Automatic annotation (TrEMBL):
InterPro entries: CbbY-like, HAD-like_sf, HAD-SF_hydro_IA, HAD_sf, PGP-like_dom2. This is HAD-IA family hydrolase. PANTHER family: CBBY-LIKE PROTEIN (PTHR42896:SF2), XYLULOSE-1,5-BISPHOSPHATE (XUBP) PHOSPHATASE (PTHR42896). It comes from the Bacteria. It holds the Pfam family Hydrolase. GO terms for molecular function: hydrolase activity. The keyword Zinc does not apply. It comes from Magnetospirillum sulfuroxidans. SUPFAM superfamilies: HAD-like (SSF56784). Keywords: Hydrolase. Coiled coil: none annotated. The keyword Transcription does not apply.
Length: 232
């Protein structure tokens, strides 16, 4: 076992795009919500891929509104976004809790290997806790396996800001170099880096073009990645 393996005490997982390819499910939930609210907004995959540069669903809707400010009066925007985000969460959580998405290749095995090796597990995500719990219900992950989950409910300043990672470090009581972050996007890599945490990256379907600068390793998926490779 290498020195890096000895030092790594915790794995910190991002969720959307990292644990599972959830983003197209998010996209379709947004589109259904827009239709229910009478908006002619439709986010196709290329547009949604561009909007993912903005972390957080509410923030993404606000960024899109700035491109189409005449669709909704500015003084009604906050209330509308809050209402649409609640409805979008309802739609999305129903879908993923029923098994609409699967874990990405290698994720279940890596989590099992990490637990067997005595590594601590945590979540650091810009999505809501409701979304995380629904995904776990639909994929068979046990929330009890993760010592802490820091979500957008806890850290409103989203990635690439390091707030969510700093919160996880504080809850774990570990120094940043003793952890390893697992991400799919440049925003996530930058957030982990800013918190001082070593990070590896596996781009998702929507983050294939992201800059991996700062990641100590990049893989297309984790199907052929062992725990020793991950933390080595």
């Amino acid at each position: 076992m290498t020195q890096a393996q000895i030092l790594t005490q915790a794995l910190i997982f991002d969720v959307d795009g990292t644990l599972a390819e959830t983003e197209d499910c998010h996209r379709r939930a947004f589109n259904q919500t827009f239709a229910e609210f009478g908006l002619k907004w439709q986010w196709d995959p290329p547009l949604y891929g561009a909007l993912l540069k903005v972390s957080g669903g509410k923030e993404r809707m606000r960024a899109f509104w700035h491109r189409h400010p005449h669709a909704v009066p500015a003084d009604a925007l906050d209330e509308l976004i809050a209402g649409m985000h609640r409805r979008k969460t309802e739609i999305y959580t129903q879908w993923v809790a029923s098994g609409a998405v699967a874990l990405r290749p290698g994720i279940a095995r890596l989590i099992a290997e990490a637990r067997a090796a005595g590594l601590r597990l945590a979540i650091a995500t810009t999505t809501t806790r409701a979304n995380v719990m629904a995904l776990m219900a639909g994929t068979g992950l046990n929330p009890a396996w993760f010592e802490t989950m820091a979500c957008s409910d806890d850290a409103p300043v989203k990635k690439p800001a390091p707030l969510v990672y700093a919160l996880v470090l504080s809850r774990l009581g570990l120094a940043a170099p003793l952890c390893l972050a697992i991400e799919d996007s440049s925003n996530g890599v930058r957030a982990a880096q800013a918190a001082g945490i070593p990070v590896v990256m596996s781009p998702s379907a929507f983050t294939q073009g992201d800059n991996p600068a700062g990641a100590k390793a990049v893989w297309p998926d984790f199907g052929g990645v062992s725990l020793a490779m991950l933390v080595g």
